[in-house]
Specification:
34 strands; about 525 residues; single chain; 2 domains; 16-stranded mixed β-sheet; Immunoglobulin-like; ten-stranded antiparallel β-sheet; Beta-galactosidase, Chain A, domain 5; mainly beta; about 5% helix
Length: about 525
């Protein structure tokens, strides 16, 4: 799942001929609203998918290398609404490199849509060679958004397949979201649906929310989307929110559907040293999957960079939320003054409707460098969507360093791992040490002599040297235990702290794969 190769691979998907005809017709104003878009998506799904319907970029553009594509600059004077005194502005991405399929973009004013027609004059193409004259009405690759008072740094971007990104109050990009995932982590190749057409609603003068509509299409499904995007303040801790409504119309049975899919990168951290040849101690956009179960239980699952692909399923009913978070915000743990991983936004999915029985599913793929998006998390419905059905989902995405929902119990702050055993004693067998720090909740209020015990379970192997003790430096508690493996198969671990019969912390989950030939128990 290399960031560039992934988008390049998704360029093989396309839209249907209807969209090419609609784009031409939309050069004049056409009535538009979300009800029309849902009806159009339903009609689209009733017909066979056409992989040749979307206009491809000229070969000279898709042959550009990374530096050549990056040299293309949008001319600021062509920014949408730049001279209108509105709180939002829009700029467009040019086709090229891995972004080889045109998307059509429209402005909606008072319930009527007209297409924003591509013109080469919108871009500075002076550094490109052998591209030649480009036709008008070529289309765009995507777009990015700006919000007052900062019209220099963008707040969100839609580019490639159904991918989009946003910033929090720190104005730092990081992980991505998608409109939909299909067969992610399956034995069959993953399908990457495309947002083929966008409609951007012209905001009022004092608006704080921008509404965007999108048509999604792929061999398996067509869909209508509405995004209500509300930027936060430019300050640490502020969040940007996106209210998303989607209507999905399958063309066929979807074996594994991914609702509200999140995509991130995890290379190495304090508990994962598989890739340990970089001078920086930690490299990741997100460090864990957080889940607020329908039962009220809070779960934290640290991410990993496994040697082989891992796929985990966490069943639930009416989840309160889930997300890929960057909890570790200590610059010293990253030492990166260019990528600023300590500022990367977390993303929390707040279900609003359509989330019943199903599961949060987590895919972790091996990665050898930080250009690889090797983490995916999404909601999967218990029932497989069938052809001819309508599936409605509504949820809110929160982008930022602080999430709107947090555990009422103490939360995991850090996870550390290393060789087990007793310091100073000769190791006569192999064991692996797990150290988990918890902060928050009632931990700081406990008397120093409080009886706090770690409740630990393992799917296999033997547990030993269990302990839990207060740690003044974090104003919390540290739990420690060793696992002695019986074989080299993955071990599922579960931990929380309690005092008497009262749970003090969220539930920490971990999947550990012992090194080969280290089994001793």
């Amino acid at each position: 799942m290399n960031r560039r190769d992934l988008l390049k691979g998704s360029a093989g998907l396309a839209a249907v001929p209807f969209m090419a005809r609609f784009a031409i017709a939309a050069s004049s104003e056409q009535p538009f609203d979300y009800a029309w878009l849902k009806g159009h998506a339903r009609d689209l799904a009733s017909r066979a998918y056409d992989p040749n319907g979307q206009t491809p970029a000229p070969a000279a553009l898709t042959a550009l290398n990374w530096d050549e594509y990056q040299s293309i600059r949008f001319r600021p004077e062509h920014t949408l609404w730049a001279k209108d005194g509105l709180p939002f502005r829009v700029q467009f991405f040019h086709l090229g490199l891995n972004f080889g399929k045109a998307v059509r973009i429209h402005e909606v004013v008072d319930g009527h849509a007209h297409e924003i027609v591509y013109d080469p004059a919108m871009f500075d193409l002076s550094k490109l060679k052998n591209v030649g004259a480009l036709p008008k009405n070529l289309g765009f690759a995507g777009f990015r958004l700006f919000f007052k008072p900062d019209f220099v740094r963008d707040i969100a971007a839609f580019l490639g397949a159904s991918y989009f990104r946003a910033v929090g109050g720190e104005m730092q990009y990081g992980m991505s979201a998608r409109g939909l995932a299909i067969d992610c982590g399956s034995q069959t190749p993953e399908e990457f649906p495309d947002f083929t057409t966008f409609w951007i609603e012209r905001p009022k003068a004092g608006a704080t929310t921008l509404t965007i509509y999108a048509l999604l299409d792929s061999p398996s499904v067509a869909g209508a989307y509405r995004f209500d995007i509300t930027p936060g303040e430019i300050r640490p801790g502020a969040a940007q929110t996106m209210r998303i409504d989607s209507a999905l119309y399958p063309r066929k049975t979807i074996e594994r559907i991914g609702i509200a899919p999140l995509t991130s990168m995890f290379l190495c951290a304090s508990d994962d040293h598989r890739v340990a040849d970089d001078w920086r101690p930690a490299i990741h956009d997100s460090d864990g999957l957080a889940m607020a179960a329908g039962s009220g239980e809070w779960i934290w699952r640290p991410l990993s960079n496994p040697q082989f692909p891992r796929f985990n399923v966490f069943s639930d009913d009416k989840p309160k939320g889930f997300g890929l978070l960057q909890r570790d915000r200590n610059f010293d743990h990253y030492q990166d003054d260019g990528a600023f991983y300590d500022r990367r936004p977390s993303v929390w999915v707040e279900p609003l409707s359509g989330f019943g029985k199903g599961s949060v599913q987590l895919l972790e793929l091996p990665a050898e460098n930080e250009t690889a998006d090797n983490i995916a998390a999404f909601w999967n419905t218990a029932q497989k969507p069938q052809a001819g059905e309508e599936h409605l989902f509504a949820y809110r995405l929160h982008w930022g360093s602080k999430m709107p929902a947090t555990p009422t119990l103490a939360a995991t702050q850090m996870t550390w791992t290393g060789i087990g055993g007793v310091v100073g004693w000769k190791h006569t067998y192999f064991s692996w040490r797990f150290v988990v720090d918890f902060t928050g909740g009632d931990l700081a209020k406990l008397p120093h002599d409080a009886k706090v015990e770690p409740v630990v379970s393992a799917s296999s192997g033997k547990l030993e040297l269990l302990s839990a003790r207060p740690l003044a430096s974090i104003n919390g508690y540290r739990a420690m235990f060793d696992v002695v493996p019986v074989d080299d198969k993955p071990v599922d671990l579960r931990l929380f702290l309690r005092s008497g019969d009262r749970a003090l912390t969220e539930t920490w989950l971990y999947q550990w794969t012992p090194p080969p030939h280290k089994a001793t128990a």
